[in-house]
Amino acid sequence: MSVSVIRRIATPKKAVATAALAAATTGMLFASAPAQAASSGSDSSAQAIAHQMIPDSAQYEAFNKIVSHESGWNAHATNSSSGAYGLVQALPASKMSSAGSDWKSNPATQIKWGLDYMNSRYGSPAAAWNFWSTHHWY
User: Which residues are listed as membrane-spanning (predicted)?
Assistant: First the structure.
């Protein structure tokens, strides 16, 4: 086989291998992101609801950071090992029923419960974020 024939064969193989590697890497990046499930509202509408419920920008940003880390704004996120559920990863999940009977599917109910929890346990979402930043849970 001549060198030019080998180059013509090797170049497409290299391109395919590079594309496969890129696709695999992208897949791994998507796989490591929080799962997104269809809900009564999308993640952006859940964020808009939270923004309306938390008018103080510093408190909203702290709440946003926690929810982004905990569930990626997926109202149906479930931790397979602990059973924690929802935007704020309540454990047990049924605790959110104190905020409303639609806690399994309504981001507003989950946000209300999460805010109540953060305010009662830590004093504010910002204080909850400070704790989360150190411990990686809240």
Answer: none
